[in-house]
Automatic annotation (TrEMBL):
The keyword S-adenosyl-L-methionine does not apply. Keywords: Membrane, Transmembrane, Transmembrane helix. It is found in: Membrane. InterPro entries: DUF423. Its main location: membrane. The chain crosses the membrane at residues 47-64, 71-92, 98-119. It comes from hydrothermal vent metagenome. This is FIG00018398: hypothetical regulator. PANTHER family: TRANSMEMBRANE PROTEIN 256. The keyword Transmembrane applies. One of its GO terms (cellular component) is plasma membrane. It is a multi-pass membrane protein.
């Protein structure tokens, strides 16, 4: 499982850099004109931070196997897909009803961090 989280985190991190660069160059004027640049940047930041968290989690799982770490990894992945994904879609389309699912992604992040903490408390003596 650790390999999956390290690889997924690495690919997601790469994708966040690519999306961020695309937004900063090709989409910047459009996003600024529609007042959605900040929303787009938030999506990129959360994707990048949680990609790093996935990599760290995977590295930790090489040494420590705890079910909470698996829950944490899936929480981060679901959070990236729902939180960042809905913000990307909202930024690009302006369809504000997508914002209704964004908090579900935030909840997945929170569950991921709580599980990370729980697994760490149980594994790191």
């Amino acid at each position: 499982m650790y390999k999956f989280f390290i690889i997924t985190g690495s690919l997601s991190g790469m994708l966040s850099v690519m999306i961020g660069a695309f937004g900063a160059h090709a989409l910047k004027s459009t996003l600024e004109a529609t007042n959605r640049l900040t929303t787009f940047e938030t999506a990129v930041k959360y994707q990048f931070y949680h990609s790093l968290a996935l990599i760290l989690l995977g590295l930790l799982m090489i040494q420590f196997q705890h079910k909470a770490f698996t829950i944490s990894g899936y929480g981060f992945i679901i959070g990236i897909l729902i939180f960042s994904g809905s913000l990307y879609a909202l930024s690009l389309t302006g369809y504000t009803k997508l914002g209704a699912i964004t908090p579900l992604g935030g909840l997945a992040f929170i569950i991921g961090w709580a599980a990370f903490a729980w697994g760490s408390m149980k594994s790191l003596h």
